[in-house]
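[step 3/7] fold_predict: job queued, chain A
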Amino acid sequence: MSILTLNCRSSSVRYQLFDQEKKEVLARGMVERVEIGDSYITLEAPGRVNCRKESDCPDHRAAVALILQTLTDGEVGILPDAGPIMAVGHRVVHGGENFTRSSLIDDRVLAAVKAVEELAPLHNAPNIAGIDAARALLPHIDHVAVFDTAFHQTMPPHAYLYALPYEWYEKYGVRRYGFHGASHLYALKRGAELLKKRPEECNMITIHIGNGVSLCAVRNGISIDTSMGLTPLEGAVMETRCGDIDPGILVFIMQAENLSARELDRILNQKSGMLGITGRFSRQRDVLEGAIQGDRGCRLALDMTAYRLKKYIGAYCAVVGPLDAVVFVSSVGRGEWPVRELALEGMEAFGIRLDRERNLLGGGENHAALVSADDSPVRVFVVPADEDLILAENTAAVLAGEHPAEVPEFF
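[step 4/7] structure written:
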């Protein structure tokens, strides 16, 4: 059984074709610059030369159609037609409180996803567009929604509620939801494997680093707290998102700059974070490279990023209890060694001792690495991001009827 996974973003679609029976990736790639112009698709498949093809994609339907066309292309494709694709797993960033597990998509589920679109406008809108496109192009197979928020539905009320009027929670669902659930679940499962333990036996802090950054406190294999909140804006310093700030700043700046709510939201999500600090770099790779080369703005952004991570790690050590591991999930890998070094510096009191040489060399696109010292009571691992594997596994579980009602029983 082949499962196609789709991670639809505002201007790109990441896809992967997974053979569930053989547990093998058959192909993966990206459609870039969707709705922008000069769109193109990449295709990587084991044993084949990587492919790149330019093709206009004015919307997500065109992007999904291009993916199917490329996978079945007589010259570069790996399938004779779309017949072997038995299901599509869709990443959905925000599921609100409606979903504690991955779910088969029907009109009711899609309506519930659309109902919380305003809580993650940069993410749910393209997620929905991808679902609509794939259901139209592949109407006779099952489609499954894998929610970022589902993994964090095990948080207790004292962790997910805000000290705001309680009726806001009752009327509008204002609470902490958390995101990057598939990535944190992957980090937990991969970390447990490296520790040679079962996931439910593990206490960890998992850290997802990418365009967005989030941390998760895991006790006995379940999420008990996470850094992102009602939206993906809260928490760590990110590439273009501000993370934690004094809420009073918002009122002050709206009045001082005569900003509308929409204008302020755009600044907080798209013009803050590392971009706001440096004034020119929105990609973490560029900031790290600039910091190493001595750029003062980049160094400040790096220091602020690492300091915020350090504070969260310390806080989560307090709430989780004795740690087994800290697991960094990264799409950048080796290039992020300065962030890890600064964030974990001086953490010996928490049982965390980094090995500088291992950290400098460790981590890569295709393998996990131990970067803690041999005498460190808490292990520190760097694992490559593989959210797509979780999308495929959860999709297969839903189709097999094996998905339980509670997130902790996923394992």
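[step 5/7] annotate
The first helix runs from residue 60 to 71.
Residues 30 and 306 are 30 Å apart (CA to CA).
exit 0
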